[in-house]
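Problem 12. The chain below contains 121 residues. Write out its predicted structure in token notation.
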Amino acid sequence: MKFPNTQRRRTIAATLLKVEASLVLALGTFLLIKGFTSKVEAVSALIGVIVFALLGGVGLLGAARGFATGKMYGRAPAVLANLIALGVAYYQFSAHFWVMALPLAVLALTTLIFSISVVPE
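Solution.
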């Protein structure tokens, strides 16, 4: 199997980062709505999670833009975010929450591989 060229890898990495950003932003939005529609025991913890989800989603969009425009500034945040996601997937596997752990692990590992494989030109 031949690995795609650098520009193709950039495009794939940018697309995967946009998918991840959409998922993280959707999670943040869901938690925001859920916070208003249900009883919340720890408001400050919920606010923290929502803020980090929204900032993380915007950061992933920025990383995707870096890959799409041929810059390297998106590489480190993409690698860090996906290493964190692999850690989250590990704990989900440990809790036997397979339905979320497996897709998260596959998406994070694939994005990580494409993010690392892009070399400066």
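Discussion. The first helix runs from residue 6 to 37. Students who got a different answer should revisit the alignment rule from Section 12.3.
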